[in-house]
Prior knowledge:
Blueprint: E1 4-6, E2 20-23, E3 26-29, E4 32-34, H1 36-50, E5 66-74, E6 84-86, E7 89-91, H2 94-107, E8 111-115, H3 124-129, H4 132-141, E9 145-147, H5 157-166, E10 171-172, E11 176-178, E12 189-194, E13 197-205, E14 218-220, H6 223-234, E15 240-246, H7 249-258, E16 264-266, E17 278-279, E18 291-293, E19 301-311, E20 317-328, H8 337-353
Parallel strand pairs: 5-8, 8-9, 9-10, 13-15, 15-16, 16-18
Antiparallel strand pairs: 1-12, 2-3, 3-4, 5-19, 6-7, 11-14, 12-13, 17-18, 19-20
Amino acid sequence: xxxxxxxxxxxxxxxxxxxxxxxxxxxxxxxxxxxxxxxxxxxxxxxxxxxxxxxxxxxxxxxxxxxxxxxxxxxxxxxxxxxxxxxxxxxxxxxxxxxxxxxxxxxxxxxxxxxxxxxxxxxxxxxxxxxxxxxxxxxxxxxxxxxxxxxxxxxxxxxxxxxxxxxxxxxxxxxxxxxxxxxxxxxxxxxxxxxxxxxxxxxxxxxxxxxxxxxxxxxxxxxxxxxxxxxxxxxxxxxxxxxxxxxxxxxxxxxxxxxxxxxxxxxxxxxxxxxxxxxxxxxxxxxxxxxxxxxxxxxxxxxxxxxxxxxxxxxxxxxxxxxxxxxxxxxxxxxxxxxxxxxxxxxxxxxxxxxxxxxxxx
Length: 362
């Protein structure tokens, strides 16, 4: 996998600077007295550089004029860790999903893997473990970012913070702050690299969490203003901007119109099965809008968006063409052994606690 994660926050940088003092005929370097021959040698070095005799550093390769990337995406798994029956067929399952992810990565070297929230809650795994097996499975699959959904909160803020600390990928939300500190509850954005491109990804969470009991200490920010601020921050430092949202498909379309500068919206919350990506025809500024995708719910599908990006004269990339699909997770996919091994201890404990005579789906 060629994509790597780079934190959104700037690293602290320390710098040291040496001094040089020269008198006629005598040189001082680093506090050491040098004689006239040293000064003559220094003068010769200066003349060589001025004449172009000193070898120059190799020039950096020019950015490609066009590049293809693939975004794999999921949303609203809702604790469906194991396969389950639907219409008489065995479907879903996180270990099966992992097999398909690896298959696509093998033929698509420039790939990002994202989740748009509501990873846990509503199912037995979540009732007992409150998201731990789901997060550990995403770690094993190599997810690179996830946004916080409204169903990440029923277990409480302490549980959410614990799950975030277990994640080996940034858990995002740019529109939630803690009132007492003014700080973000989660990382607002991250910058990933994919095929040499800098991809900025910011998260948005459903505003209705403001009415949830126990979350009075959180401040939910305006979606429009937050997204505009994220675009302003990310545009100078990235080649592509992705909104990873848990706000619902209709609101994604609204966001795509009112906030120019977003290239792709990977959505969740409304459980919308978009068999093909939809591109917002235009933004309020008149330009073409973002490509929007969403992959249903319960882990039934793995969304795949293949994008060709082209660089304009200003050096900025934009979406030139795209195609996408929803890949079904079915019994034809064998479970990935690594992910299955991660989930096995949780399944064992869940079976031990299951009431006598109950049936677990597979």
